[in-house]
Amino acid sequence: MASGRPSNRKVLLLPGDGIGPEIMGEVLRIVDFFETRNLARFEVSEDLVGGAAFDKFGVPLTQETLERALESDAVLFGSVGGPKWEALPFALRPERGLLRLRKELDLFANLRPAVVFEALADASSLKHDLVAGLDLLIVRELTGGVYFGEPRGIETLADGSRRGINTEVYSDSEIERVVRVGFELARRRSGRLTEVDKANVMESGGLWREVAERVHADYPEVALSFMYADNCAMQLVRAPKQFDVIVTSNLFGDILSDCAAMLTGSLGMLPSASLGAPDRSGRRKALYEPVHGSAPDIAGKGLANPLAAILSFAMMLRYSFDMDEEAGLVERAVKGALEKGARTADIGAPQRASLATRAMGEAVLSELRKAA
Ligand code: IPM
Ligand code: MN
């Protein structure tokens, strides 16, 4: 097992709110496993984010936590938000903590793989044959577009009526850097890239197309196609296997990745990696998080599916620490646990007894123990 890399892999754990702490607890057990077996060492520290940070410090992300994130090799993020904080002013909402981390760490490329484990092909709301063997990757732009565009806000006009404003704005360089990530990944996979936009109604979408076409010249071996976002949503549920890599804006990527998640059986299965640009030494800032949210309805009950968080940890091994082999080990352990029938409620068949968060973590660990 490759363990020649320096031992101080600085990982900041931000469990957040709702089911975040429960699922991160299972990730920590896998970290422990790696350390006990001498497979890798991590320097893990933990901090508050989202509603948990607001309750203690009055803000969803403190300057200190942000600085710790900037100094880490990788951030492992749980989830943020919940009804308790919904009435807060926008700037203090838990979600702002996550958005600020993305922006300040300049994590512009969000990789959201949707892979269907054979054992779960029947858990999808789509027919088995439509999703069996599916392996697609959404590359979502993460630091621009309508999420951050100015002007934004709610204004009151002279006649007392109000107006809500958000702006979709992309510079060509913002588009280019994320489109390149899409091409690079497509080149290493099956060589197909679909750029998704609404160029039929949005000028910014037209720019996305132009830039993608220009960058394509550097990747002649990749087949580039274009698709409107509404059609893409439809195609994802009609014939998802036509896709390999999809690259798209922040908002469309948010929506389409929830859609892609359901193809895999449950939102509880989808991991993600948010990556910055590599620095001179080739290291990039990175944050890993499950695509699902804080699921307040089941929080604290030990029912949440920890697999998306565990698979996010595997992505960290692969993308931040070049530990492909170890990442594969974790992914195969998840696959093995599913093949043995381990199911949390979200992916369980109705007649099947479902496992708690902890028992699912245990099922993965027991596969790991056998393999490592
Ligand atoms: C996601 C989430 C976030 C987003 C929220 C929590 C701000 O839905 O990561 O997909 O909209 O980006
Ligand atoms: Mn989302």
Bound molecules: 3-isopropylmalic acid, manganese (II) ion
- Quote the distance from N terminus to C terminus: 9 Å
Regarding CATH, which class of the largest domain?
Alpha Beta
Please list the strands of the largest sheet in the order they lie side by side: 2-1-3-12-11-4-5-10-8-9
Strand tally: 12
Compute the CA-based radius of gyration: 20 Å
- CATH domain fold name of the largest domain: Isopropylmalate Dehydrogenase
Per DSSP, the total helix count is 12
Low-confidence stretches: 1-5
Summarize model confidence as the mean pLDDT.
Answer: 95
CATH architecture of the largest domain: 3-Layer(aba) Sandwich
Q: Approximately how much beta-strand content do the residues carry?
A: 15-25%
Task: Give the tally of structural domains.
Answer: 2
Task: Label the structural class.
Answer: alpha/beta
Assign a percent range to the helix content.
Answer: 40-55%
Largest sheet: 10 strands, mixed
Question: Which H/E pattern describes the elements?
Answer: EHEHHEHEHEEEHEHEHEHEEHHH
At the fourth CATH level, what is the homologous superfamily of the largest domain? Isopropylmalate Dehydrogenase
Describe the structure.
With 372 residues, this protein is an alpha/beta fold. The protein has two domains: 1-112 and 266-372, Isopropylmalate Dehydrogenase, CATH 3.40.718; 135-263, Isopropylmalate Dehydrogenase. The chain contains twelve helices and twelve strands. It has helices at 20-36, 51-57, 63-71, 94-104, 128-131, 172-188, 203-216, 229-238, 250-263, 307-321, 324-339, 357-371, and strands spanning 9-16, 42-46, 74-79, 109-115, 135-141, 153-156, 162-165, 192-197, 223-228, 245-248, 273-275, 286-288. A ten-stranded mixed β-sheet has the order 2-1-3-12-11-4-5-10-8-9, sandwiched between helices. A two-stranded antiparallel sheet has the order 6-7. Helix 1 (20-36) packs parallel to helix 12 (357-371). The radius of gyration is 20 Å and the shape is globular. The protein starts with 8 loop residues before the first strand and ends with a helix. Manganese (II) ion binds at residues 254, 258.
